[in-house]
Specification:
This protein has 144 residues and is of the alpha+beta class. 14% of the residues lie in helices and 33% in strands.
């Protein structure tokens, strides 16, 4: 079956993304910590297209945070819902335009010694508009 063409705005989008840890305890000032990770969305970049990926999203944990591994599905879901509608003209309430096999998710923990980037595969539930069932493997640009 031939894939439909996907209109997109190519480029590299970099930003900080807020997320909450599973524990929402307050400090003495009654504040709850909101953590941040760094996100880079690469759209239509030559090196990604050569391996069949239209978009590569890299989520990078920051030092002194709980990391992102336990929160990757929530972060990925919210990034997709927040940005894909503008980048790909994909409305989250409509039919998914970007095939899942053309999206690559990378998770990085640069502050952990000897930790290689991880490629995360997840399933998209088009009814719940959410990712689930993450699985990780070591990421290598040469083979992925």
């Amino acid at each position: 079956m031939k894939e439909k063409s996907v209109f997109y705005h190519p480029g590299i989008y970099r930003f900080q993304w807020p997320y909450l840890a599973a524990w929402l305890s307050q400090n003495e000032q009654h504040e709850v910590t909101v953590y941040h990770c760094d996100v880079e969305i690469r759209v239509g970049q030559e090196e990604d297209m050569k391996v069949g990926k239209l978009v590569t999203v890299t989520v990078t944990a920051r030092e002194h945070t709980p990391g992102v591994q336990n929160f990757i599905t929530e972060i990925a879901t919210k990034v997709r819902l927040s940005f894909f509608d503008q980048i790909f003209l994909e409305k989250h309430w409509g039919k998914t335009l970007v095939p899942e096999h053309r999206i690559r998710w990378i998770e990085c923990h640069p502050y952990i010694e000897d930790q290689s980037p991880l490629q995360v595969s997840m399933k998209w539930d088009s009814k719940k508009h959410a990712y689930h069932s993450p699985a990780w493997k070591t990421f290598s640009k040469q083979t992925n």
